Amino acid sequence: QVQLVESGGGLVQAGGSLRLSCAASGRTFRSYDMGWFRQAPGKEREFVATISWNNDSTYYLDSVKGRFTISRDNAKNTVYLQMNSLKPEDTAVYYCNTYAGSWAWGQGTQVTVSS
Q: Are 64 and 86 in contact (CB under 8 A)?
């Protein structure tokens, strides 16, 4: 089973940037599409971005297009989320996930954007 560990969250002012990382265990990381989701207080978890197993395609939540970039390094078993021009409404716990026979989720990393 794939295990995922996120890092890189923190407190940043509006307009700032953060880069989240998600390290995956297992030799089959490169076989799976990877995604980022987020959950703000009192709200349901929502899709943010996804990247195909071969880096061929990416998809984004409309509100983050042009500001966030998902990427992956299959040699390092790591997926990234570069977040620029952050807004207070981006404040949430961010999770990476994948489907490897069953859904796997990390523990999440907190991102707080102050106005």
A: no
pLDDT tens column, 50-89: 999 999 999 999 999 999 999 999 999 999 999 999 999 9
Question: H helices within the chain, ranges in order?
Answer: none
Amino acid at 21: S
34 in Cβ contact with 96 (< 8 Å): yes
% the chain with pLDDT above 90: 88
Backbone angles phi, psi at 40, to 5 degrees: -90, 160
Note whether 35 and 105 are within 8 A (CB).
no
User: Residues 102-115: pLDDT tens digits?
Assistant: 889 999 999 999 99
Name the CA dihedral angle for 38, 52, 19, 11, rounded to a multiple of 10 degrees.
Answer: 0
Which residues, 6 or more positions from 77, have their beta carbon under 8 angstroms from its beta carbon?
23, 24, 25, 26, 29, 30
d(CA 42, CA 112): 15
| β-bridge mates for residue 27, sequence order | none
